Please model this.
Amino acid sequence: MEIEKLIAALEETITHLQKSQSSGSSNMSAEEIIRKLEVEISKARNAKPTDVYTLELLFAPTGVIQETSIDNGWGSRFLRIADVVDEFIGG
Model:
């Protein structure tokens, strides 16, 4: 997979998170999730290895991003984005 596709998916996630309220079901605020995604985007842009474990946790079913997306009305978009991330991490 092209790294640009992953970066675009993470940036799209951030765009949705910036418009979202933190989920009561999540142990991480939207702002905390954004910071973690920004770190991974920076790594990808600088040809450094991304933290696959972090991406797996953030994008896992019933994970913090999915919970936030459902609570904020973009759950179906999350599923599309998660497919891109899953393809990257080999899941």
